[in-house]
Amino acid sequence: MAQKQTLSFQAEVAQLLHLVTHSLYSNKEIFLRELISNASDACDKLRFEALNDPSLYEDAPTLEVRVSFDKEAKTLTIADNGIGLSQQEAIDNLGTIAKSGTREFVSRLSGDQKSDAQLIGQFGVGFYSGFIVADKITVESRRAGLKPEEGVRWVSGGAGDFEVEQITRPQRGTSVTLHLRDEALDYLSTWKLKSIIGKYSDHISLPILMRKEEWQEGEEGKGGEHVLSDEWETVNQATALWTRPKKDITPEQYREFYKAISHDYEDPLAWSHNRVEGSTEYTQLLFLPARAPFDLWNREKTAGVKLYVKRVFIMDDAEALLPAYLRFVKGVVDSADLPLNVSRELLQESRDVKAIREGNTRRVLAMLEDLAKAEKDEAASEEDKGKYARFYAEFGSVLKEGLGEDLANRERLAKLLRFASTASDTVSVSLADYKARMKDGQEAIYYITGDTQAAAANSPQLEIFRKKGLEVLYMTDRVDEWALSFLHEFEGTPLQSVAKGQVDLGKLQDEAEKKAAEEAAQSFQPVLARLKDALKDKAQDVRVTTRLVDSPACLVVTEGGMSLQLARLMKQAGQQAPNQKPVLEVNAGHPLVQKLEGSPHFDDLAHILFDQALLAEGGLPEDPAAYVKRVNALLV
Predict the structure, then answer these.
(1) Which residues contact 445 (CB under 8 A, 6 or more apart)?
(2) DSSP SS3 for 430
(3) Per-residue pLDDT tens digits for 465-506
(4) Who contacts 87 (Cβ-Cβ below 8 Å, separation ≥6)?
(5) What is the DSSP string of 499-544?
């Protein structure tokens, strides 16, 4: 038999254990949910692997989880007969934080108990929650298919290291034994454990077994006591929650199920539970989280939907069941039509999966539409009225990706978008709201892109719109300009960037204004010609504008061109941006512009005008030192 090995925890695990042992969870009983959930997952994995190799069941085809305790030894044990661990798997899985995102995990630990607790589940490190109540944990395991003498024992006191040794273990699967701290001895109670299991783990589809408790009479004249019998009883419903009738499931049971599958510590915003019948039969139970996960912007991260076929677990994160822009949705899909040995490759090609994906997408959008309707529903509670705003603050940017990815649902998605605007500082304006407020004669929905809302709000390009009382939407998410390239109009009204092309306010510009602009452009031609020559390396064109009121100049791009902001974002991301020159528009009535004519410093003023317009856009002059030199020369 192999000697004991003493190994050190990965540094991040040691940091995590320090947090756990200092009462990370405000609700300590969560540890039991985490360990039972792990045991259930191990049984699911065995069931899946045994589809191709039934011999893995050995002589125990019935999968189960057993919870037991020993008052004298002060131990609590959670055991399963699932897939089990080999010695190397025990070292890898119990000594390091789940495969990816380790550094990310540690960088996000804030010391805020509530948010740190949420991260523990998200990173798949719920096993360590056992140290909330235990000062030592012993894990004994054998992987299905290995010989009895190839078992493993893993022991740690939750400090800097752990011991591993090879043992003989006849039964496959894993038992996790918690050596309880003195302040946690109240968990050595059948009643307490049953109540926790009923609260958090009733939905587990496997039977969770505990020893029956019986009343034993004492000697004559003495009272009796409860003792544990040799008989085991099932203490949960042991039926998958999604297979039960909706009328039999309480809102609290839905919330606890969501927390168990998502490892989230907040309640979901909404859920939808349906049995779909027709050419493709399946059950869907989908949840909208209240908070974005740490890896929301990792587009390679798959959707959080578990796939079951005829109640047999097949895979986590089945990306084929939802489009990438809905990757934040959590839940379960149980299909009656897919083959049990379905693979990720087969999922991509299956006609049934296409129908399930479309059905799931429609259901999620319907949930979002219901949340959005509640915003304006006077009968809705204040909590319900605020749910869509909460959702949009967390996931609105990801939802916009759907404009470019989901042509079939583009109109529905457009109605779900929300923006801040010159009429509202909060991100609450829908395109329908905007249309309802449009002025008579207004022919477009106007918007402006910017790095921040403040930068967009202070852009000189808004001046004429403010003067005319025209609302302009602020587009400040990085994804906005890309997404809007797929949305050219809303319910027949075109979307128009105020920073692209000529400003044409149509019927909103009276004849006198048009005539004055034409005359200014005509009389200003000699100056424009000199400006074009001075700025030929920087500007595509120079023209008199009608969009400025107080500022001397601004930069715009041609209709259909890439905005200066998007070009900057692409360069920051190391991507090649089109080499396009902007158009400089000047305000012929501004004193600085009028000063150009006859100025001995014409070229310097021309470059200063251009660079200041660039600064107002959030950009930087190509040669900042030359800009400073020119300004200083003029100041002197």
Answers:
(1) 431, 434, 435, 438, 473, 490, 493, 494, 495, 496
(2) coil
(3) 888 889 999 998 888 888 988 999 999 999 988 887 676 666
(4) 2, 150, 152, 164, 166
(5) TBS----GGGS-HHHHHHHHHHHHHTHHHHHHHHHHTTTT-SEEEE
| pLDDT > 50? residue 302 | yes
Give the DSSP letter of residue 238: -
CB-CB neighbours of 246 under 10 Å: 11
In angstroms, the Cα distances linking 55 to 59, 325, 535 are: 9, 41, 79
How far apart are alpha carbons 527 and 133 in whole angstroms? Answer: 80
d(CA 242, CA 331): 10
Written as six digits, the tokens of 442 are 């207004």
Say how far apart CA 564 and CA 629 lie, in whole Å: 25
**Domains by residue range for the chain, with CATH:** 5-235 (3.30.565.10), 242-374 (3.30.230.80), 417-498 (3.40.50.11260), 511-636 (1.20.120.790)
**CA atoms 239, 244, 248, 250: torsion sign:** positive
Task: Give yes or no for a contact between 261 and 203, defined as CB atoms under 8 angstroms apart.
Answer: no
Q: How much is the pTM?
A: 0.73
